[in-house]
Amino acid sequence: MAFFSFSTEDYAPSERLEAAQDIYSAMAQVQLDAPRKQVPHVETRIKLLPGISIARVTASSLHAARETPQVADGNDDITLLIHPGGPGGWLSHLEAHESLACTPGRARVVYNHQSGSVDFHGERVNFLSVAFSRAQLAPLLGDMDRLPKNLLSPGEPLKHLTQLSLALTKQPETPDNQPTSQLTRQLLDLACLALGATPEASEHALRGGLREVRLKAIKADINVHARSAITLEALAKRHSVSPSYIRALFHHEGTSFTDYLVEQRLQRAFSALTSPQAAPRSVSDIALHSGFNHLSWFYRAFKQRFGVTPGEARALILPSPP
Predict the structure, then answer these.
(1) Residue 43: CA atoms inside 13 Å, Cβ hemisphere, count?
(2) Which CATH code fits 208-322?
(3) Where are the domains of the chain?
(4) What is the pLDDT of residue 299?
């Protein structure tokens, strides 16, 4: 899985436009132009997976185009142009279709074999491009003719697709050490649901990629709120699913919501007890701030999980008496 980053800040002001033009022309067959007398700012982070390319861009006011000379490269990818949020905005122009202004959380579908362009307006405009091989994605979709005509609705699949794509462009390493094949499938499943999948592809995606990213998001939520009085009902409401659906997600992994929550709290308590910085705190204080309200139950659960009592765990970091 290849990773590439580029920033005009690495070049002298007089060289920045030419450097950006060279990079984009070579990598994506895209022609860049900036307003006269303006020093452009472009930051790009690109992640390449089998059949999928993701580009996260922050740019000043620019005109980026794939016109007749560029589309002759034979690239027929299906690309989602996504506004991931932040100040500024951009307009998408596509051959034989109306120009559309993309707002945060929305996206436009473009076909790379057609001429088109994007105009960025602002000092630091965020832009996310997720391109899929037509051979991979097209068989999973329903009516493709309608897709470029309107902006996509900011539904759950598009939200998860955006979050996963942004996470993949943050660093060269794969998040959570996920296999590339799993990430590719998740992105394809989310894309086909966001774009309108065939009945068969929709059923597969709901049981596959969407379920996996939902579980990941729910776990992240639990990790953040593990110290507080988190309930299954409140968690389900935040993620727009039912409590029974969350139970089924954890059951599919061979665990339960309660067991996962307790494990996160126990791990927090163990880390605090075995950290030199936590030595002055009492065991009861650490238990309380880890999310445990009943000390006797905490002691039993801790001993069962780690094979030692909280006091014995703390003794592991205390200096031995002379």
Answers:
(1) 8
(2) 1.10.10.60
(3) 2-162, 208-322
(4) 94
